[in-house]
Design a protein that fits this description.
389 residues; 9 helices; alpha+beta
């Protein structure tokens, strides 16, 4: 019975090993292996992920150190909370790049360090160095109070309030969609939410927000609420805006031109505070934090910008992989010379371990750094100890 179960298991391990080798085979194998042999260029097995993710030290990119001017904060604002909010805002901004191994960390009381692989310093500095901009927007309406929408092809159409829906876009942000009676689909056309101050039209922005807090709803049996507090000018503007949107029309809240919430306005609000109701706890806390970040006048100054050369990173990667291969081959040679047949079996098991782990790194994917390569080689040594035991 033991042999009956061993052979299928050995066949399965062999298949997994071969598939893993084909999956991780590099595009330019001569970079890592002796170049006097004509190797096939990868990927031999294409599963939709053709390259390993590389970190800043191997791929190159930008390291930025920014400093926030906390002196611009109002006296009643907590500096630590302000820096946490700005840090989260920076994380949202660098995620727009869509690259791996972006790191945003606080350094000291008022500094934030950002590492962005594959991005030149000027582009990274321009995006990260902006002060957060919180804006309130309202949908454009026609004379019949229908909502104006724009389709993907640029054509415009109108829908009643019941024709609106909310979905989540590919970037994770909410999208206010429209469904027309003739089958049209699109998104709401937004314009700045304005009110009259001293006979002048003024926009409602984060400058008029005194604070935002997430708390448990006191008026309903479920959900959390986000309470927004406006200053005197914001109160006057919001009274005008909420009067126009009363009846369920959405008020768009945009941070850095990205829609973060679009609650419906049920009634005109004349007080200096309002609340967004029936929100899940985590979403409410995150929304309040983003609104506070957009309302905080914290200018950021880039005090250090360092570019990591991609060519140097590539050379480091090649040498690191070659050093790892040499170390692994030396370990296998030692086991074969010292243990003979058990050493051959242990080397085969070690080879399977290496290619399967690398395949997992590539498929998940895991970001490879120089320190990660060293850690992987160390794990090979631990695997050898396990084989010996």
């Amino acid at each position: 019975m033991r042999h009956v179960s061993t052979w299928p298991m050995l066949a399965a391990i062999t298949v997994i090993t071969i598939v893993s080798v084909l999956f991780i085979w590099p595009g330019w194998p001569k970079q890592y292996l002796p170049d006097f042999i004509d190797y096939p260029e990868g990927p031999i097995l294409d599963l939709g992920n053709n390259a390993m993710r590389l970190g800043l030290d191997l791929k190159g990119g930008t390291y930025l150190l920014t400093e926030a001017n906390l002196a611009a904060l109002p006296p009643d604002r907590d500096p630590d909370e302000a820096m946490d909010a700005v840090k989260e805002l920076m994380e949202n901004r660098v995620n727009e790049f869509g690259v791996a191994e972006t790191e945003v960390t606080r350094e000291g009381r008022n500094r934030i360090a950002i590492q962005v692989p594959g991005i030149p310093p000027d582009q990274a500095r321009d995006l990260i160095g902006r002060t957060a901009l919180l804006r309130f927007m309202e949908p454009e309406l026609d004379d019949a109070h229908n909502i104006k929408c724009r389709a993907d092809d640029g054509t415009e159409f109108v829908v009643p309030l019941t024709g609106l829906s909310e979905t989540v876009g590919a970037d994770g942000n909410p999208v206010k969609g429209c469904s027309g009676g003739a089958g049209q689909t699109g998104t709401v056309i937004w314009k700045a939410a304005t009110g009259t101050i001293n006979n002048q039209q003024r926009e409602l922005t984060g400058a008029q927000v005194n604070g935002a807090n997430a708390t448990v709803s006191q008026s309903s049996s479920s959900g959390w609420v986000v309470v927004l507090n406006f200053n005197g000018e914001g109160n006057s503007i919001f009274t005008d805006v909420s009067g126009r949107l009363a009846g369920g029309y959405p008020l768009g809240i945009f941070l850095d031109d990205q829609l973060i919430s679009a609650p419906g306005v049920q009634n005109q609000i004349t007080g200096n505070s309002t609340q967004i109701e029936n929100i899940p706890q985590d979403e409410a806390k995150n929304l309040a934090k983003l609104i506070r970040a957009g309302a905080l006048p914290v200018p950021l100054t880039t005090i250090q910008a360092t570019e990591v050369d991609a060519t140097l990173g590539e050379q480091t990667l090649v040498r690191g992989v070659q050093a790892g291969l040499i170390g692994i081959l030396a370990v296998m040679a030692f086991m074969i010379l010292y243990y003979r047949l058990p050493g051959i079996l242990a080397s085969m098991a070690l080879f399977t371990y290496i290619v399967v782990v690398m395949a997992l790194f590539k498929s998940i994917p895991i970001t490879i750094t120089l320190a990660g390569i060293a850690g992987f080689v160390l794990s090979v040594g631990m695997a050898v100890d396990a084989n010996i035991l």
